[in-house]
Write a structure and sequence with these properties.
The chain is mainly α. It has helices spanning 2-30, 33-64, 68-98. Helix 1 packs antiparallel against helix 2, helix 1 (2-30) runs parallel beside helix 3 (68-98) and helix 2 (33-64) packs antiparallel against helix 3 (68-98). The N and C termini lie far apart (73 Å).
């Protein structure tokens, strides 16, 4: 039974892995590797949150309709999305641990003018 459920979620896992590889390679080519990782973590946090919400609603609908096969499929995808979300949050924690500068966002600089160049 476990392998049957696993075979149903393999296309979703492959699609997410391909999307991650493409996004990371493009972002790394355009920006620095830490920035690419930050982009990937932020993007996949939103993707897994959206997938969790959608499959959670599918699961609730199937539960209220007493449709066991759809509930089984939707619950499998929901569990996969929740595990993916947990993995992304752990990756974010590790990323921030190794790159503490990304915790604080850059602030705008204040310029202090001195006489005779004071301006207001």
């Amino acid at each position: 039974m476990f392998f049957v459920r696993l075979s149903r979620i393999v296309p979703l896992l492959i699609a997410l892995a391909l999307l991650a590889a493409i996004v990371y390679l493009v972002a790394r080519a355009v920006t620095s590797p830490p920035r690419a990782k930050e982009i990937l973590i932020r993007l996949f946090t939103w993707i897994t949150l959206a997938l969790s919400a959608v499959f959670g609603l599918f699961s609730l609908y199937a539960l209220f309709e007493h449709n066991a096969p759809v509930l089984d499929l939707a619950a499998s995808f929901l569990i996969t999305a929740l595990i993916g979300l947990a993995a992304i949050r752990i990756a974010n924690h590790v990323f921030l641990k190794h790159n503490p500068g990304y915790r604080s966002k850059p602030m705008r600089a204040n310029t202090k003018w001195r006489w005779p160049w004071q301006q207001r």
